[in-house]
Design a protein that fits this description.
104 residues, mainly alpha, 3 helices
Length: 104
Amino acid sequence: MSKLKRNNVWLGLALGLIVPIIIYIVVHKIDQQLAHNRQRLFIIRDDQKFVISVIFNIIGFRLYMVNWNLYETGKGILGATFLYAIFYVIYFELLGRSFIINPM
């Protein structure tokens, strides 16, 4: 835990990029279970799962910026969130795509 309490932009960027991926996988697995129980292909659309996963960066951002006063790490998390926002606009809005994940 002490390694996560460093004031480092690169640590914040890494956390800001990795945490949403983990949350996306968890949300996707939950969606698979719910869809399987209701005999549907999916319940939550891919773009909604993406937004839900990136929202969790807000929790990390607040934790680092307000509670622990580690501003550089908070800036890294904010930077990762902006990168995800740019990706969202390009991939989902401009290209109109969705992730292709095979249902099990």
